[in-house]
Each structure stands twice: as C-alpha cells, then as structure tokens.
C-alpha cells in the first residue's frame, strides 16, 4: 500500500513546493518594487548593471541576429520562390523577426548569458555571507543588490531585442540582395509597405519588455533563494536557464494570443 501511495506523495510534495515558490517569488517581486527607490535615485547602480547585463551581451546578440536573419533569407526565398512571390522576402524577414523570432530568441540568449550570470553572482554573495553582512550594516540587500539588477534587465532586454531585429534584417538583406540578387529597392519597399509600426514593431518591443521582466525576476530570485553552497549555486543557475526558457515560450503564446 505504501509503495502505491509513494508516487502520489511525491506528486503532492512537488505541487506544494511549486505553489510555495510561486507565492514566494510573488512576494519577492513586490519587495523589489517597494525597494526600487534607491535604484532609481542612485541610477549609477542600475547603469553599472546595464553594462553588465546588456553591453556585455551585445556580441552574442549581434552575431546570432545576423545568422538568424541570413537563415531566414535563405529559407524565405526558397519558400516564396515556389509561389512566385520572392519579391516579398523583405517583408517576410522583417515580420518574422519583429513579431516572433527577435523577442523570443533574444530573450533566450539573454537568459542564458545575463540571467545565469546574475543568479551565480547573487548566489555567490549569499554563499560568502555578503548579503547577511549588508543586513548587519543596516543596508537592505534587496535595494542594494537585487533591485538594480532587476531594472537593468528590464531596460536592457528591449534594446537587445531591437538590435537583434536590426542585425537579422541586415542578414536577410545580405542573402536576398547581395547573394541571391533581388532588387534592393523592392526588398526595402516590400518591408516598408507591409510592416506596421504599432502592430508589428511596438508589439514586439512590448513582448521583449515582458520577457525581460520575467527572465530577470527569475534570475535574481533563484540567486537570492539559492542554497549557500557551491552545489546550491550551480543548481540555481541551471534552474534559471531552464525555467526562463519555459516561461518565455509560455508567455510568448499568451502575449501573441492577445496582441495578434
């Protein structure tokens, strides 16, 4: 009988733990918002984290965006050529990036590079008792350590997604115009005629803003909640990347359903 009930007990324990963590991260998010005054008044703290989270991610964002755009150019041309409408390649590349691939792929790269680094950094500060030392000195660790990193991620993510889109469109141009030989004027005019500022560009940036909030919140929470050991920090970093990827894809479906 106990052997039959064991899987049910494990499922119940996992469910209770998931609900508890969801409630804890909600309270943690409220605490970040309530303690964000120092980050906004002493904005140099946030700017320093913007450099860490955003500027240092530029290389992977730019290179990945370029190659994704080149792949879209090749695949899009082959698909459109079947239907005799290869001139619409510019619109296809731009819409694919602005609506979907740009925000999602940039967020996944951001989670893998900056999100994991934030978790490891905060987790290491916890393991070496730096956060406890701040509390002893009457310094709020959420206001001093967590909030600047959270707002840095929120600020950086839309900018990185926009750069990803720009490089992706440029990659599509290189393939479509320079390699295949499509007319450059047709490439850009099709893009201009079919891309809407609000419906495509703004909605894509709103997506990236939500992704930035979700990824950064998960990253700082996992670091703050990490077990103060080497194995605990490593496990928290892994959870950040995996959870962020799942949340990005789920959130993308919800936002797409409402926006498009």
UniProtKB/TrEMBL annotation:
Entry-linked InterPro entries: ABC_MlaE_roteobac, MlaE_Permease, Permease_MalE
Membrane topology note: Multi-pass membrane protein
Pfam families: MlaE
Keywords (A to Z) from UniProt: Cell inner membrane, Cell membrane, Membrane, Transmembrane, Transmembrane helix, Transport
Primary location group: membrane
Record-given protein name: Intermembrane phospholipid transport system permease protein MlaE
Lineage: Bacteria, Pseudomonadati, Pseudomonadota, Betaproteobacteria, Neisseriales
Family: Belongs to the MlaE permease family.
Superkingdom to which the source organism belongs: Bacteria
Gene that encodes the chain: mlaE
Transmembrane segments: 50-77, 89-110, 157-180, 201-221, 241-259
Annotated function: Part of the ABC transporter complex MlaFEDB, which is involved in a phospholipid transport pathway that maintains lipid asymmetry in the outer membrane by retrograde trafficking of phospholipids from the outer membrane to the inner membrane. Probably responsible for the translocation of the substrate across the membrane.
Subunit and partners: The complex is composed of two ATP-binding proteins (MlaF), two transmembrane proteins (MlaE), two cytoplasmic solute-binding proteins (MlaB) and six periplasmic solute-binding proteins (MlaD).
Cellular compartment(s): Cell inner membrane
């Amino acid at each position: 009988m106990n052997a039959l009930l064991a899987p049910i007990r494990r499922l119940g324990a996992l469910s209770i733990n998931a609900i508890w963590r969801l409630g804890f991260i909600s309270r943690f998010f409220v605490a970040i918002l309530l303690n964000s005054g120092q980050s906004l008044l002493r904005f140099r703290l946030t700017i320093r984290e913007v450099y860490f989270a955003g500027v240092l991610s530029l290389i992977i964002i730019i290179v990945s965006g370029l190659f994704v755009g080149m792949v879209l150019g090749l695949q899009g041309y082959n698909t459109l050529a079947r239907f005799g409408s290869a001139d619409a390649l510019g619109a296809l590349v731009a819409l694919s990036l602005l609506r979907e691939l740009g925000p999602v792929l940039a967020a996944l790269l951001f989670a893998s590079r900056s999100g994991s680094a934030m978790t490891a950094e905060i987790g290491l500060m916890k393991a070496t008792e730096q956060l406890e030392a701040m509390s002893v000195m009457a310094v709020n660790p959420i206001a001093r350590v967590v909030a600047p990193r959270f707002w840095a991620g929120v600020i950086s993510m839309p900018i990185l997604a926009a750069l990803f889109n720009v490089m992706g469109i440029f990659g599509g141009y290189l393939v479509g115009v320079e390699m295949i030989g499509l007319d450059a004027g047709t490439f850009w005019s099709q893009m201009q005629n079919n891309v809407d500022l609000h419906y495509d560009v703004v909605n894509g940036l709103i997506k990236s803003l939500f992704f930035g909030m979700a990824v950064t919140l998960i990253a700082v929470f996992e670091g703050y909640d990490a077990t103060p050991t080497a194995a605990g920090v490593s496990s928290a970093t892994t959870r950040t990347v995996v959870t962020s990827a799942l949340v990005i894809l789920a959130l993308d479906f919800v936002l797409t359903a409402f926006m498009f």
